[in-house]
Amino acid sequence: MLPHTWNAVDGQDGGNDYYRGTCMYVKKFRKPKMEADSHAVLEFCGAAMVAKVYINGKEVKMHAGGYSIFRTDITEELSEENILCVSVDNSYHNTIYPQMADFTFYGGIYREVNLIVLSADHFELIKDGTPGIKVTPVVTFTETGNQTEVTCEAWVNGSGSVRFLVDETEHEKIVPVKDGYAVCSFILMDAHLWDGIHDPYLYTLRAELLTDARKPADSLSMRFGCRKFELDPQEGFLLNGRKYPLRGVSRHQDREGAGNALTMEMHCEDMALIREMGANSIRLAHYQHAQEFYDLCDEEGMIVWAEIPFISAFMKNGKENTLSQMRELITQCCHHPSIYCWGLSNEITAANAVTEELIENHRELEELCHKMDPTRPTAMAHISTLDMDSQLIRIADLGAYNLYFGWYKGKLTDNEAFLDEYHRRYPYRCIGFSEYGADANIQFQNAEPEAGDYSEGYQSIFHEHAVKIIMERPWLFGTYVWNMFDFAADGRDEGGTHGLNQKGLVTFDRKIKKDAFYLYKAYWSREPFVHLCGSRYADRPEEITEIKVYSNQPVVTLYVDGIETETKKADRVFKFQVSISGEHKIQAKSGNLSDEIKIRKVSEKNPSYVLKKETVMDWFERLGINPNYYSVNDTINNILENSKAAAVLDQMLGEGAPEGNALPISENAGLRKMIGRMTVADVLRRGGSAAGSLEKINEALQKIVK
Length: 706
Ligand code: ADA
Hints:
Number of strands: 40
Oligomer: single chain
Structural class: alpha+beta
Radius of gyration: 27 Å
Bound molecules: alpha-D-galactopyranuronic acid
């Protein structure tokens, strides 16, 4: 049954051991009803990563890239009864992206497959998965309104002419097909603008292929929106001439139990949650998402950063694949009014240095984007370790940094210090904050949250800081919480769970909104609400506990056991100190809005609220580990603080590293983010290493005093 992935379970349970290989999908089908000269085209909306399509034993198509649409004409191969075989392979390839990244590379035919029957003359659908037509509106503001030029293009196999209609009858033109191509443009005076989340108005273009026959030989339609995006280093983002800072979230497409094989309901649920929070922009990371989701962004007025999976580790043989994935992304998505930029790469220097080849790859991508789409800028998301002066940064039109100060390392205020420094040095360049966030497992609760405890409370503190510094910096053209949803990264094993990146504001199953979700809602949404934080922090050992409320109302009153206790005026974050003894009902009210939680005073910390650190494997326990010396029970981060111990790690973990992962771990920021908080023992066990290497490395570490 499609859509399907074979990694819905093993890609989400940790261990970095999910099946990466080839599977074969087989289906028998009868030849569809078709005229003698008509065509049958097979459409795949997503097969990860490499697909080979066979009809009746003959290979008809090979496609490399797990996230884009591809089609193939199978007319010639069809018999009355047919066997379709598709081999899909998500194993390691040093030519296809992604290969190293912090998410699971699910394998399978995980989006729809369709069989399309076309007349002899038809719109082109094969090249780079083109939709056959293209529409490009360019808005120019006049003194009284706007004048919008809408260019309509069509690619045709066959001859005749194309009738283009905007919204059925109002604007109509018929143009002859010349060399398989037809183009025309319309001028819309005072077009109804597509205006972000406030008024995402969409027009529809219809194209009909006219031949001698009475009815059109083929017809297609496509929605479009008329809007003007501008980016300015000082003003930030402008929509239709007015300042419109992009404040949003990143989204990975997968979810618990389903992997990347999604239903329309799931896409809609994701969008509804993002809308509820009040975001106006989404970074669709780190690859091309389903057309259904870009459509939802168009409909809901979300402004979108679209990108290809050129990520983490540069592969010298991967250039062709970056170019083909970008060609497909732009060809298949450029009509979406929601998209404002094409993302060339993400943290591409996480595992390697900036080399000439890397620069050249980016230059070619940049050129391709501008050639294919002169209307949109390109963007790159950099890792914090990339030098602000690097020539790599100058390649894309928009620069942006993924910063995690206050989570992986450093302190919260390092984030704004970094961004301010960049803005000071390069006031003429646009800068965005492409990722920031902290992991939170809703199980972990305490009164004094701190970085690294994976508590829901620390995630809230992290974002309270982040949202504030973002508000104060309107020149940041776009900012993106990493991530809207928890997502699978099978290589992770941390934070009290396996295989999960828990930086989501909403859990992997979309069922629980973490407290930080409501913080953003308080800043961004106009829907009045009050939210009491800490509903999952029920057992509290402290005598005086902090009760925190997030709200977009100016005044909040607190009730303890039904008794009015305190009224506070504050800006979105309201903090109350409450003495507790026994069980309490806490209520927060503002006008007729209210929320309620139950807490109780306990004598000791509830142990299930605290992340348990895994320690030694039993045979080491028996051998005895000297705690004054480094051992495999130390975390990678701790070990890297000591140069001698770091050298041991670099040498031992470096053996057998895959291609691209060229830097030793001490310099490999990407890898360090993934495994820095894990112990060496955990990393080796999870990687399936033999016990021998664990012993060998432990022996070497035990010689280095702490
Ligand atoms: C990087 C990367 C993301 C993400 C993040 C994290 O910034 O771009 O894919 O996983 O790290 O959570 O560490």
